[in-house]
Amino acid sequence: MHIFDETSDLLVLPVLNNKIVGAKCLTGGEISYNQTSQGIMLNLRKVDTMKESVIIELTFQDSITGMALQKHRLSMFTDPIYGQLISKSENLQSANGSLVVKLGQLINVTGIGLQQIQTGTEGVVTVEVSADGVSWKLVKEGVRNSKLVELTVSQFNAGIHLPGVNAQFVRLSGKGGNNPNFQVKQLTVYARSN
After folding, report:
1. Sign of the Cα pseudo-torsion (66, 72, 73, 77, in order)
2. pTM exceeding 0.70
3. First-to-final CA distance of the chain
């Protein structure tokens, strides 16, 4: 288990129908635990929880099946390299094939999530970011009807892609097909501090 955020000295996990036979912190420090019918309590008092990442290994008596979080898809944006969620817009409808979301300030945009995007027949959406609303950087072209699309925003520098582009606008543009307009149930923007 990876812990990316600061946490208290006690971490509570849900009830598991499997007995824990061992627990250790792979990033240093000692960990103890108490497993009851109410859940699992991990004692992290002897672990440096201020580290960027704390890794805990739990050993179970039997193979693990049926964990509660197993059914939920985790976003790639849960990785701390993408920073945090800074904007969430819902039930968006384009006008004349375009939609612009103003973020309010210049920030280092690292990711854009689109949920339940619906375009016209054979239509596609282009996603771009801009610092000034005039010059636009292409993030992804050709996004089609989809339940979930997660796009990383990066810049090419010294031969490598680095996450993040300074921007304060996100633009989606529809094209092709019988109608350039589109709908997005949810648009999320992730960023890091500049």
Report:
1. negative
2. no
3. 29
